[in-house]
């Protein structure tokens, strides 16, 4: 994901996804002026750089408003960057998407609202048959058998095919959504908060399922989550976002053991931990991207902010093995 | 139970649609204590809070057992007229989704002022001054301007601060906080939990949190009540129970908690299942690795554990 450490650079490996200084500016009406024709630019993403290697598992972590969903839409080719380049196998994602069904077949998506993403009038079998038919994965006669196989792979019994999502539990619906995503035989699975809002035991069951699928099928996994525990359980690499930027990337264990960016450190401390007292919370809230400060966009909440932070907007720079951080005064390794 | 309790709930039982969704729930709370109700969705946590606020619908009229509030006596079966005197004054509640708990048609300031005037009989000017003070207390910056904001103009965190201000406006003795932060980001979650704890502590109020996050419960509550399918399975001092759970369900719940660095999770298979098909005895019997033949037949009573300050409902505890 990150720039390779010198020495390993010999492997000319093609990343699945590569984002080069991606910017996405939405034109919006200024707040409070509902009738105004004038629009202002809202930078939902700004200078985002990310490499996703084939077979990697990457967690995209950030709070709401940090730009995760916009980044996801850019990766899926649903939104074009207003600047910079978003590549899939070295070709522009938008172009790939328009070129035919191959891209949509290879990059499958599991949505946060699994229940809402499945037509309630369709039974589970029909919902899974849809991508099988659409992409012509198997001849029509083999569709029922393939549905049973897919259900089995996600731990559901074959008779689930005849049921409707309204009659399934939250955990079962998520499994159906995963089965449907796998129907097109993708090599990349993108999941948006796929395990949030579930009971802990159901969440644990799903995490184990996703982990097994990723390993068995060699999937490239891009997992959007706000939960660092989930990121650390499922993903080898992590990218932490704040206000439209990636502020830190690297191997998940290393980043969470010793975050370099003050925001990563604050997220790390805010995660509930058994019998540890609640720590001093980070003050304030994520500001609106409409009035970004001049220097570092985290300066208003940062406990380490110094005078230069108000002037200089820090770029994502190398910071130890496989790690990058966008901070003028990163935390040292312990 | 101690005579000094603020709230004593005994054998609270509730049927809904033919199912027993609360089954002999027993718990107690001392003044100034924080208590966590934990368990999976559908375990009855919110129903307990709703029942103790007198907010159950008429279809839940068949409620049995006792709930005594210090200085007030029996709560269950009170007419609405008496409940409405208690709510806001001695009991109040914060909901998970502040956005929908607040009235979208009125400014948040007006909503707080209304509560202050109704419950404390303050004049308009006095209520407005008090509202401003409360907004500042709960960390709403630019409080003066925020008083005239509509709920949708505020972030989720700010909406929840407004809820806290409204809930604490009349210095209640007991605050219910039903998943007050599960819709919020973690850094905001930490702010709101700290705020609720600080504000209840300085007022000497008690707080009952409904939480699904055991780690968060361990950080914020003195005592814990673990529920499974409407039954209390284990309760006592949070640190003791989470350190060494004795009920197999508590142990399982704890083992599913994901912390940073967790390598392997070993969750139980299946799910709670339908209330209509609960075994006669222990409701956890179908999923319990320690179940004995008698478990599904005979309901284990909630009894004080011989060692330490905890109650336990299990025939074969750890
Ligand atoms: N279609 C859009 N038009 C205007 N603004 C948008 C649009 N989509 C997202 N935004 C804004 O972009 C920022 C990032 O949002 P989003 O990607 O949804 O973050 P997240 O998924 O992390 O919550 C927010 O300020 C959001 O309001
Ligand atoms: S650049 Fe400065 S303000 Fe920004 S995160 Fe680093 S120390 Fe904090
Ligand atoms: S009573 Fe029996 S089934 Fe229930 S938790 Fe105890 S051992 Fe398990
Ligand atoms: Mg989002």
What can you tell me about this protein's structure?
The complex is a heterodimer of chains A (334) and B (318). Chain A has a single domain, classed as P-loop containing nucleotide triphosphate hydrolases (Rossmann fold, 3-Layer(aba) Sandwich). The longest helix of chain A has 18 residues, at 200-217. In chain A, helix 4 crosses helix 5. Helix content of chain A is 28%, strand content 21%. In chain A, the strands form 2 sheets. An 8-stranded mixed β-sheet of chain A has the order 6-7-8-3-9-10-12-11, with helices on both faces. A 4-stranded antiparallel β-sheet of chain A has the order 2-1-4-5. Chain A is an alpha/beta fold and 334 residues long. Chain B is an alpha/beta fold and 318 residues long. The mean pLDDT of chain B is 89. Chain B is globular and about 65 Å long. In chain B, the strands form 2 sheets. An 8-stranded mixed β-sheet of chain B has the order 6-7-8-3-9-10-12-11, sandwiched between helices. Chain B has a 4-stranded antiparallel β-sheet with strand order 2-1-4-5, covered by helices on one side. Chain B has helices at residues 45-52, 80-86, 98-101, 108-120, 124-137, 143-146, 156-168, 186-203, 214-220, 238-243, 248-255, and strands spanning 7-16, 19-29, 34-38, 63-69, 73-74, 91-94, 174-178, 206-211, 223-228, 231-237, 303-304, 310-312. Chain B has a domain at 222-318. Chain B is 32% helix and 21% strand. Chain A binds chain B through residues 63-64, 169-171, 199-205, 207-208, 226-230, 232-233, 253, 256, 266-268, 270-279, 281-283, 285-286, and chain B through 40-41, 155-158, 185-191, 193-194, 197, 212-216, 218-220, 239, 242-243, 252-253, 256-263, 265-269, 271. The complex binds adenosine-5'-diphosphate, iron/sulfur cluster (2 copies) and magnesium ion. One iron/sulfur cluster is lined by residues 261-262, 296, 298-299, 302, 304-305, 309, 314, 327-329 of chain A. Chain B: It is a peripheral membrane protein.
């Amino acid at each position: 994901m990150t720039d390779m450490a010198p020495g390993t650079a010999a492997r000319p490996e093609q990343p699945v996804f590569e984002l080069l200084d991606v910017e996405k500016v939405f034109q919006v009406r200024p707040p409070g002026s509902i009738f105004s024709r004038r629009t202002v630019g809202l930078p939902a993403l700004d200078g985002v750089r990310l490499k996703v290697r084939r077979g990697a598992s990457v967690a995209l972590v950030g709070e709401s408003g940090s730009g995760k969903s916009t980044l996801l839409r850019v990766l899926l080719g649903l939104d074009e960057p207003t600047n910079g380049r978003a590549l899939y196998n070295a070709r522009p994602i938008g172009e790939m998407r328009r070129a035919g069904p191959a891209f949509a077949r290879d990059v499958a998506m599991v949505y946060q609202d699994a229940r809402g993403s499945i037509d309630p009038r369709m039974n589970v079998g029909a919902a899974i048959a849809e991508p099988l038919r659409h992409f012509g994965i198997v001849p029509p006669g083999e569709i029922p058998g393939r549905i049973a196989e897919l259900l089995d792979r996600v731990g559901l019994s074959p008779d689930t095919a005849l049921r409707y999502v309204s009659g399934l539990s939250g955990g079962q619906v998520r499994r159906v959504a995963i089965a449907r995503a796998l129907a097109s035989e993708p090599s990349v699975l993108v999941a948006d908060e796929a395990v949030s809002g579930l009971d802990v035991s159901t969440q644990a069951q799903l995490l184990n399922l996703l982990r097994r699928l990723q390993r068995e099928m060699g999937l490239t996994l891009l997992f959007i989550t706000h939960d660092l525990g989930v990121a650390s359980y499922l993903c080898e690499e992590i990218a932490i976002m704040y206000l439209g930027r990636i502020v830190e990337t690297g191997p998940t264990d290393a980043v969470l053991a010793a975050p370099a960016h003050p925001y990563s450190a604050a997220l790390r401390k805010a995660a509930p931990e058994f019998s540890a007292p609640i720590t001093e919370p980070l003050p304030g809230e994520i500001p609106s991207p409409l009035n970004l400060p001049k220097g570092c966009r985290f300066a208003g909440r940062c406990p380490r902010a110094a005078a230069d932070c108000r002037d200089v907007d820090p770029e994502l720079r190398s910071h130890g093995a496989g790690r990058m951080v966008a901070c003028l005064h990163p935390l040292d390794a312990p | 139970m101690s005579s000094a309790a603020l709230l004593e709930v005994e054998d609270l039982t509730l049927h809904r649609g033919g199912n027993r969704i609360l089954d002999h729930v027993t718990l107690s709370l001392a003044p100034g204590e924080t208590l966590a109700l934990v368990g999976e969705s559908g375990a009855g946590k919110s129903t307990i809070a709703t029942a103790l606020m007198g907010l159950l619908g008429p279809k839940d009229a068949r409620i049995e057992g006792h709930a005594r509030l210090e200085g007030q006596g029996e709560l269950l079966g009170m007419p609405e007229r008496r409940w409405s005197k208690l709510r806001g004054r001695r009991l109040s509640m914060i909901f998970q989704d502040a956005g929908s708990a607040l009235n979208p048609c009125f400014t948040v300031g007006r909503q707080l002022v209304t509560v202050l005037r109704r419950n404390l009989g303050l004049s308009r000017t006095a209520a407005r001054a008090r509202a401003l003070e409360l907004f500042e207390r709960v960390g709403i910056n630019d409080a003066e301007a925020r008083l005239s904001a509509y709920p949708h103009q505020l972030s989720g965190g700010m909406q929840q601060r407004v809820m806290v201000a409204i809930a604490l406006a009349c210095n209640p003795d007991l605050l219910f906080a039903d998943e007050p932060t599960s819709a919020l980001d973690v850094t905001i979650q930490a702010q709101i939990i700290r705020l609720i704890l600080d504000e209840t502590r300085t007022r000497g109020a008690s707080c009952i949190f409904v939480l699904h996050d055991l780690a968060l419960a361990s950080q914020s509550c003195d005592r814990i009540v673990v529920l499974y399918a409407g039954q209390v399975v284990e309760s006592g001092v949070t640190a003791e129970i989470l350190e060494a759970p004795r009920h197999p369900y508590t142990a399982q719940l704890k083992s599913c908690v994901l912390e940073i660095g967790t390598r392997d999770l070993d969750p139980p298979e299946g799910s709670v299942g339908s209330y209509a098909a609960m075994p006669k005895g222990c409701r956890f019997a179908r999923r319990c690795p320690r179940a004995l033949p008698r478990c599904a037949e005979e309901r284990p009573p909630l009894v004080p554990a011989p060692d330490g300050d905890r109650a336990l409902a299990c025939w074969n505890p750890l």
